[in-house]
TrEMBL record:
Active site: S203
Predominant location: membrane
Subunit text: Heterodimer of a large membrane-associated beta subunit and a small pyruvoyl-containing alpha subunit.
Co-factor requirement: pyruvate
Biological processes per GO annotation: phosphatidylethanolamine biosynthetic process
Location relative to the cell: Cell membrane
Major enzyme class: lyase
Protein name listed in UniProt: Phosphatidylserine decarboxylase proenzyme
Organism in which the protein naturally occurs: Rhizorhabdus wittichii
GO cellular component terms, semicolon-separated: plasma membrane
Post-translational modification: Is synthesized initially as an inactive proenzyme. Formation of the active enzyme involves a self-maturation process in which the active site pyruvoyl group is generated from an internal serine residue via an autocatalytic post-translational modification. Two non-identical subunits are generated from the proenzyme in this reaction, and the pyruvate is formed at the N-terminus of the alpha chain, which is derived from the carboxyl end of the proenzyme.
Amino acid sequence: MTSLDKPDIGTTSIKWRWPSVHPEGRKFVLLSAVICLIFALLAWETLAWPMAGITIWVAAFFRDPVRSTPTGEGLVIAPADGLVTMITTVPPPRELAGEDGLGDAPMTRVSIFMSVFDVHINRTPIAGTIKRVAYIAGSFLNADLDKASEENERQHFLVEGADGTRIGFTQIAGLVARRIVPFVKAGDVVGLGQRVGLIRFGSRVDVYLPAGTGHRVALGQRTIAGETVIARLGEADRSIGAAQ
């Protein structure tokens, strides 16, 4: 997987590079490219050109850019690229609730909606140990709807930090998404901003913040997975923000 080489001391710039295509998507790129080639060889230009565009789009969908994750005590990092569409207070999902999970008290949920044009590699919001991974089969409603959190196909993650703090986040399938792919399992140790999975073709990720932690993002703000700070543990100040 692509990595960002550390620059020499004194270096103040870095060259732009094309994002790599994640291995999970290479078979789809290859398939669409082969179909495009067949159309071209048959001189079916009216089909070959659109298929070429689809091939480029599929490659872009599965792009896996390098991210520079900020470091700092108690940071909670965005797990997904996309638009912050909901910030609300709700009980934790039953799959993550309980004494050995997030508890039962209401907590702040930040929902990030990913369009088909966003990067779909999801990352862990904190470093720690994956304590639980729970897959739930369900419907494929519009992921932007509030009830998608309870009715759509989804996958829950529970991560416990070194200090015992627990963060839950959920991958939710949408209208077009039909496959949630995890990269980790219970018991795995993950670093801050590490890749943990993807959802194919548009969806949403919910993050559940612990009590006493307020969000630092605003409705309508765009987040970058592995880079945008959405909260600092124990910091209750909330971002309000305004559309401009």
